[in-house]
Task: structure prediction
Amino acid sequence: MNGQRPRSTRKGVKIVAIVGGSIVALAATLLVVVLIAGGILAPATYREPWDEEYAARFDDPRMQLVARAVLAPSSHNEQPWRVRLDEADENVLYLYTDSHRLTPEVDPLARQTMISQGTFLEYLVIAGRHVGTDVTIELFPDGTYDEADLPASMDELPVARIVLSPRSDANSDDYASLFLSDTNRGPYAPIEVTAEQASDLEALATMTGLTLTVHRDREDVSAIGAATVRGTVIESENQAVAAESARIFRSNEYRKNETRSGFAVEGQGTDGFMKYLLQGLTTLLPGTNSAEAAAERAVALATNGAVHTPAYIVLETAGNTRIDQVRSGMLYAQVSLRARSMGLVVQPVSQVLEEYPSMRAERAAIHSAYATDGGTIQMLVRLGTPTVDYPAHDASRCRRSARRETLVAPDRWAPTTR
Result:
């Protein structure tokens, strides 16, 4: 023995090094493939509306306001809005419900869809005030829907006639909040919502027939939180609802740019490198986003959220007409924006209010506990101080991704989905 390593050993070391290097190279290649599949190289054109200068792209003042209003939260992020510009009067536009954006399994009566019309209208009002424009809204100017033929009626009858007029001053209250994520599903800090904050939010309910109550009592918070978890469990076990949710899930940047509506991984606060990684895995391995996996994540998120919530908002209307529903959406938009201006965040947790048969018992129970006689709870909302703030350009805010087609179509219809 002369102290030299045997030739066979040296060869083994070389083989191990080669194999190790190959594994690392393969892993790196696979990672690149996953990230590309997730859209890491795709320009996020769906985020363009979040640019505060985006509205300046449009010459028509009506469209400049619409470009802000499409940032409004909507049910299941379907953004079911269409706008028609009045050709005879440059100060008038009409809002319609997009019947192709309904979610009949989770929202069979289209109540949540109508609430979404209200959020759009209120964002339009806030944007108008910022630029010194009054926005006057006439709801259902041509009459309300034929409930027996709802989709066709939605296409024919406007939700609102909107008239713009100059005002003597500009008011930017809550305007900056338009550009902040309006839904935060994360755990909230163990900081109480103060009586003053609750009172300020409750005071926003000035429309006749609408009430807003901030529940801060520990017993109420616990009871409402438990109900929201039960509602999430029931919703997650409904196969038809799960299939509908899967249909509107956008797995990567390419799909978001193409459709600009629906759910995405940002809905849970995921951003940056991890967003592209999850999107790539979901795209290449659809089984990672199976109904069972999605249901498990939804229940876990709801459970954790309920544990870390200091207050809940109950938004109620005396009746349940289409006008009541739209107005409740307008009030919710005010609350959401004002909460952000106050340093608070919100999350709608209204599963327990959904109208399909398997939710009937829970819906009745929450109304028995928290609605006035004959009243309809339109929304349940978490309220608190964020522990993690979602990206300002969140592509899945309640639903907040953005399908942004050219806002003005040749026939003067503006498909206003974000």
